Amino acid sequence: MGNKPSAVENCLIAAVGNDKGLVAGQSTVGFQLTHVKPYNLDIPVKPAAVTYPKTSEHVAAIVKCAVDNSLKVQPRCGGHSYANYGIGGTDGTIVVDLKNFQQFSMDKNTWQATIGGGTLLGDVTKRLHKNGNRAMAHGTCPQVGIGGHATIGGLGPSSRLWGSALDHVEEVEVVLANSSVVRASEKENSDVFWALKGAGAGFGIVTEFKVRTQAEPEKTTLYSYGIQAGNAQEKANAFKKWQTLISDPNLSRKFASQFIMTELGVIVTGTFFGPQAEFDALNISSRLPNADESVIVLDDWIGVVGHWAEDQALELVGGIQSNFYAKSLAYTKDDLIPDATIDKLFKYIAETDKGTLAWFLIWDLEGGAINDVAPDATAYGHRDALFYHQAYAVNLFGRVDDKIRNFLTGLNKVVTDGLGHDLGAYAGYVDRALGDNGPSKYWGSNLKKLQQIKAQVDPKDVFHNPQSIRPAT
């Protein structure tokens, strides 16, 4: 520690067995740079302390210390919250960094894996591969942590085939607001388990996951189509064809796809979980505009996941801190964008001053196995989502200004005006600008039940960020 530790810091040091190296407070030299490390530099946050527990008992004692000092708590795994909610989202939070929770084992009878709550997705992939060539659905950024990812949704290329990351979770060890360490599953502490599968940050700190796994695909086909579209209307026409393709109810669940638009142009890219002959039989190229086609086949699952990470880095998403703003919308099969609205949207994109060249818009195909689960089976709020869009803008030279914010806000407004109603947002793409309306957008019809469970297990709202679940009153 640098200066004299505060009373809270002393309490936290005691909580982790008097190991001062496991606690950093505001008196610690280099606190913000070394320990806080905000992902979104546009949102300054100063926690009360950052802790690095090594056991569940440490976590429980940290939570008690926070409660005794009337402070809020948030867990951090990868730390990729768009609004810095993993460090509290506002000043004065106790951060529980889970980097030391790296336990892993595989039951080769059930193929159920035990994964520490601080494991990053890149390590999840490697450890599953090394223990029986197994896999699970998750996103493409290797620096994202399973702790937040598998308790908020966890969408990725294989989700149409296998479900979301949280759909793989069968049991957890979790620390609750009363400092108890409990197991939760469909049979034990089932209400807590239900809430953790979609709204975890407001209910506890998961120190361990038990997840079902899948056999790695033997062959995987990776494709991309660089769409030859110059003006706004050509780009709009390309999107219309993509939307028609992905809304086909008979489309194979092995097919994952993204429509990506940046300052440089338009590309349709994705993965088919099968051999090229099977992919070719879908005749995807004939259902899209003229394009520069690239198709490769890999029989190396680590190579496939690595390819996703490379693509994601090119799209300016990854482990890099920056000043950025993001917004999202969820679309169902009944929310396909009308042709006239598509034309208006792409005209808006072409003509609006965006305030930056570092912007991109991604439409992600979802649906499939995610939609098989009943809307009220877990807290996840968008079981009917067919696809999402994510709009990002990065200011490479300073804070995000009104011009950038207005561009993304206006983009969403064109869509919602065209559909005649507002659409929900994915909590994994958290949008601080939604304010108090955020929870209803994220969790929809499940919000009331979440608030009721919150009142039972965390009535003082210990696990808190600006848009987490509040207790029912």
TrEMBL record:
The keyword Oxidoreductase applies. Residues 43-216 form the FAD-binding PCMH-type domain. GO terms for molecular function: FAD binding; oxidoreductase activity. InterPro entries: BBE (IPR012951), FAD-bd_PCMH (IPR016166), FAD-bd_PCMH-like_sf (IPR036318), FAD-bd_PCMH_sub2 (IPR016169), FAD-linked_Oxidoreductase (IPR050416), Oxid_FAD_bind_N (IPR006094). Signal peptide: none annotated. Keywords: FAD, Flavoprotein, Oxidoreductase. Gene3D superfamilies: 3.30.465.10, 3.40.462.20. Belongs to the oxygen-dependent FAD-linked oxidoreductase family. This is FAD-binding PCMH-type domain-containing protein. The keyword Flavoprotein applies.
